[in-house]
Amino acid sequence: MKLLLILTTLWASSRNVTFGELFMLDDDVHACKPIYVEKGEPSRIKDKDKITNIIQSLFEMASMMDVHLFGFTARISPVMYDESAFLSLSKMITGCSYGVIYNKNTWWNEEIRLKEDFWISCYMKYKERKVLTDLRYNFEQKNTFVNAGGLASIRNQEEERKSILFIKKNFGDSILLKSATTNGKDKTKQLVQYNISCKFKF
Fold first, then answer.
1. Which residues in the chain come in under a pLDDT of 50?
2. Could you tell me what percent of the chain has a pLDDT over 90?
3. What is the CA radius of gyration of the chain?
4. Angle in degrees, 0-180, between the axes of helices 116-128 and 157-171, rounded to the nearest 10
5. Cα separation of 75 and 79, whole Å?
6. What pTM value is reported for the model?
7. Which one, of 18, 1, 53, lies nearest residue 32 by Cα?
8. How far apart, in whole angstroms, are the C-alpha atoms of residue 44 and residue 34?
9. Vertex 178 angle, CA 177 and 182, to 5°
10. pLDDT tens digit string along 81-95?
11. Which residues are within 8 A (CB) of 82 and not within 5 positions of it... i.e. 6 or more apart?
12. Which helix (H) or strand (E) holds 196?
């Protein structure tokens, strides 16, 4: 099976179209990083064929496991890597690089304008109890709130707040609100009132 790969510059324009099986990469993704590397080893994969094979392999694994949402980790550093748990069925995907195998449960609520990756992760966890995440690779993108195009025209503190509270309303106690913190990664957490994490009681 071959997977359709597309670049998404505007999420809203692609989510109403059913492709069947696809993997979406934001147009501001500029690197594929293996986070299992040792000190001194290359920290970027530049070969396009190798990157395509990484994506294709995860897709084939998801197909065999009957998982309909799959993607890669948001972790950014080798110190975050756990070599005993390089795949997960319980973590979230990150919106800049994820794939779907469409079925009746791959549904995005049109009322939510931002945090759609969090929405679909929560929804698939609720409906199917599994999301396949490869914890070995991170698709690195530019910082949120500083990019042109895409959802930049509507991405602001108020829209982030509305989306977060909408998700909290729909998934209740499984969504945990947490105060803004700085982790040295980007400016996002300084620009939103609070962020969220998810813990479903399976």
1. 8-16, 145-150, 152-153, 180-191
2. 28
3. 16
4. 10
5. 9
6. 0.77
7. 53
8. 7
9. 150
10. 888 889 999 888 888
11. 135
12. strand 194-198
User: What would the two tokens of residue 73 be?
Assistant: 């980790």
Beta 137-141 vs 29-34: how paired, if at all?
antiparallel
Report which secondary-structure segment, H or E, holds 126: helix 116-128
Question: What phi and psi, each to the nearest 5 degrees, are found at residue 160?
Answer: -60, -45
Answer for the pair 25, 137: CB distance below 8 angstroms, yes or no: no
Q: Which single residue is written with the structure tokens 């503190």?
A: 157
End-to-end Cα, the chain, rounded Å: 31
pLDDT at residue 143, as a whole number: 61
Write down the residue that tokens 């001194």 correspond to.
40
Which helix (H) or strand (E) is 34 found in, with range?
strand 29-34
pLDDT digits (tens, 9 = 90+) for 99-108: 999 999 988 8
Main-chain phi, psi angles of 145, to 5 degrees: 80, -5
Q: Which of 34, 94, 35 is nearest to 70 (CA)?
A: 94
Residue for token pair 């070599």: 83
pLDDT for 59: 95
CB contact at 8 A, 184 and 139: no
Residue with tokens 């994969």: 45
Q: Are 25 and 139 contacting, i.e. CB atoms less than 8 angstroms apart?
A: yes
